[in-house]
């Protein structure tokens, strides 16, 4: 085995390469080829092309539990503004064929690199554990579709069913800190499209038209009342309208207008009530305007909540504490971010343990002496999906490799147990 395989500098080079060469959801072909080559060199049995670009390596190493470690590979249509020397200036084509900038704005390049590091570490140290290790790289987390695509491509008929699915997400917490929340950990997310159908015409003669822009504008404001007037103070919901598109020119009233909503919820009843309210408001607005056709409301993507099975989370937390120390392993509380890793765990009938990995420069927190001050500084950092978001490479990378390896060892057998 080459000594460069365990060289941390090489991992940093892989990270920079991935960061400079991001690929959109379901287009992760080069990333998949890179991880495939790496897993083959390490001696894994490798399956490729699962659910389009998914890759899984299986390493059978004696008796013991089967443990699956997962990373997501996709990037986002964001123009990078970090100013880093390894910033992306890649362009890609989105699902509609539009040319868009592409950036690893969610840090999935860090997830891939950390998982390569953990695969190297565990495969090169296979005398210290016993069991079956599965290393999985999934496409299209950002669409909430990649985990499902792999599961529906007979994933768990082709590899042994794991006892646990382990994974992590880099976050603006300080590098050196990891956060795991037992129970409900990440919100459910829904992508909802509202299309208003009006009747277009000349901007100078609005009386001959039904203006979908006015319907859309009224709906944007009215939707603010879903959270404030229809959801109890003791319940939670986030409803963000992230996209509003209509028209091409100032003097043309268009035929249609489209709103895209991101909704986050922790409870199916709250979710269902909110979707009913969105439908009622959009349809009501189109009727009030005398639209020739009712507004269409379409839930086009859905992520279920991530639930860290409590006993599994406790076991993973103990492994993380053993490596990082008790002060570095915190409880995050449930967060409004969403993830599709739970789909893999559900499909396998496995427990799920998913944690947040700190990625902000620890020097930024030097002045913080209390948890409140640390949180205040975390909240000042760019969040994932921002054009200025990027974790510091170190110590984030070393910590991410160590966290995955430690968590896996907490589930795998020791050779003497086997
Ligand atoms: Zn993301
Ligand atoms: Zn992400």
From TrEMBL:
InterPro entries: Amidohydrolase (IPR017439), Bact_exopeptidase_dim_dom (IPR036264), Peptidase_M20 (IPR002933), Peptidase_M20_dimer (IPR011650)
GO MF terms held by the record: metal ion binding; N-acetyldiaminopimelate deacetylase activity
Record keywords, A-Z: Hydrolase, Manganese, Metal-binding
Record PANTHER family: METALLOPEPTIDASE, PUTATIVE (AFU_ORTHOLOGUE AFUA_6G09600)-RELATED, PEPTIDASE M20 FAMILY MEMBER
Note on cofactor: The Mn(2+) ion enhances activity.
Lineage: Bacteria, Bacillati, Actinomycetota, Actinomycetes, Micrococcales
Ranges where the Peptidase M20 dimerisation domain occurs: 191-282
One Gene Ontology term from the biological process aspect of the record: diaminopimelate biosynthetic process
The protein's name: Amidohydrolase
The UniProt record lists the keyword Transport: no
Pfam families per record: M20_dimer (PF07687), Peptidase_M20 (PF01546)
Cofactor(s) of this protein: Mn(2+)
Binding residues for Mn(2+): 106, 108, 142, 169
């Amino acid at each position: 085995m080459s000594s460069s395989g365990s060289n941390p500098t090489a991992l940093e080079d892989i990270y920079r390469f991935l960061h400079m060469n991001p690929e959109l959801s379901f287009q992760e072909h080069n990333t998949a080829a890179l991880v495939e080559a790496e897993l083959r060199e390490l001696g894994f049995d490798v399956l490729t092309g699962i659910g389009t670009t998914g890759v899984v390596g299986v390493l059978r190493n004696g008796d013991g539990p089967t443990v699956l470690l997962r990373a997501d590979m996709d990037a986002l249509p964001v123009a990078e503004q970090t100013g880093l020397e390894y910033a992306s200036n890649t362009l890609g084509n989105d699902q509609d064929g539009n040319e868009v900038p592409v950036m690893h704005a969610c840090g999935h390049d860090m997830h891939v690199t950390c998982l390569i590091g953990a695969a190297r570490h565990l495969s090169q140290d296979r005398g210290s554990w016993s069991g079956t290790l599965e290393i999985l790289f999934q496409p299209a987390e950002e669409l909430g579709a990649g985990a499902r695509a792999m599961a529906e491509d007979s994933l768990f008929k082709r590899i042994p069913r794991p006892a646990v699915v382990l994974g992590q997400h880099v976050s603006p917490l300080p590098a050196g800190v990891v956060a795991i929340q037992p129970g409900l950990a990440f919100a459910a997310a829904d992508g909802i499209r509202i299309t208003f159908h009006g009747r277009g015409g000349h901007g100078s003669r609005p009386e001959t038209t039904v203006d979908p822009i006015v319907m859309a504008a009224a709906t944007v404001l009215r939707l603010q009342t879903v959270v404030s007037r229809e959801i109890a103070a003791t319940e939670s919901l986030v409803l963000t309208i992230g996209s509003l598109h209509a028209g091409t020119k100032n003097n043309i009233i268009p035929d249609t207008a489209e709103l895209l909503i991101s909704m986050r919820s922790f409870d199916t009843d709250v979710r269902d009530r909110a979707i009913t309210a969105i439908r009622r408001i959009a349809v009501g607005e189109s009727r009030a305007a005398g639209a020739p056709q009712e507004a269409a409301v379409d839930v086009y993507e859905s992520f279920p909540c991530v639930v860290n099975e409590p006993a599994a989370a406790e076991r993973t937390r103990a492994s993380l504490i053993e490596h990082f120390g008790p002060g570095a392993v915190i409880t995050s509380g449930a967060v409004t971010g969403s993830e599709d890793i739970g789909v893999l765990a559900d499909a396998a009938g496995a427990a799920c343990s998913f944690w947040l990995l700190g990625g902000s420069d620890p020097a930024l927190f030097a002045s913080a002496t209390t948890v409140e001050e640390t949180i205040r500084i975390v909240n000042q950092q760019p969040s994932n999906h921002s054009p200025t978001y990027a974790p510091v490479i170190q110590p984030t990378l070393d910590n991410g490799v160590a966290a995955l390896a430690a968590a896996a060892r907490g589930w795998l057998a020791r050779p003497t147990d086997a």
